[in-house]
Amino acid sequence: MGRWMSKVNKFDAALLVFQIIAVQSIHYLSLSIITPLLLHLFGNDEALRYEWGSSPPCSIGLILDWRELANWDHGEPVWQGLWIQGVQRGRSANIYEWDGSHNRSRGWVLAICWVFACFVDIIPLYYLIRKPTLILDFALTITGLHFLFTTAHVQSPPVGFFCYGVYALGVVVLVVGAEQLAMRRELTEGLWGDKSNEQDYEMSTRHNHNQHVRSHRRPTGLGLVLDSPDNSPDKIRNTQ
């Protein structure tokens, strides 16, 4: 038993790397599905077509560009309007056609997408990580890696309290949700055990266990254990 426990508690670097890659990949997969859907439902279609070329948009910038989450208007003014040879030739009455105005509600939609993705991440944390003591570490790892990715994408770290508030809320969702489920599972298994393994033991090994106990049983007092090998009728007859 001690040997088995030491094997379970042994640090496995390959397993840790696999868990990080798996959880991070599922997180971005969730974002890539949720983000275009919610932007198409609650975003401005004309602004999305102007800035991203389609609605729903299919661009990694909406996930990795923290300026979109922070509601920063990072468009270049030189490209706003119709310019020919460096001279602005016209502006449309439709502000989304030439002005490239930024949709201010988009940041809130992206924040909701991030929180929804964190709710989805509870499932892989529950089944892949399992240990309640590691949930916080992996929640911080998901957020920390995204911080590095978005910094490399924009070439600048996130600025503003809104971004960090959304990231902190995502960590809280991951820790509260996944850790509570993992602790509940450990308490249930600790109190009642694994019922499937118990049934397998009862059906397959109880008979062998009883035979082993009877074979090592010794007579006490004047009583004889007839099914014991040491007290077979031939051996008793020889001793008499």
Automatic annotation (TrEMBL):
| Entry's localization field | Golgi apparatus membrane
Picking any one GO biological process from the record gives: Golgi to endosome transport
Q: Does the keyword Protein transport apply?
A: yes
Keywords in alphabetical order, please: Golgi apparatus, Membrane, Protein transport, Transmembrane, Transmembrane helix, Transport
Would the keyword Transport be found if you checked this record's keyword annotation?
yes
Recorded topology in the membrane: Multi-pass membrane protein
GO cellular component annotations, sorted alphabetically?
cytosol; Golgi membrane; trans-Golgi network
Q: Where is this region: Disordered?
A: 203-240
Family the UniProt entry places it in: Belongs to the SYS1 family.
Protein name according to UniProt: Uncharacterized protein
Q: Which organism is it from?
A: Wallemia ichthyophaga
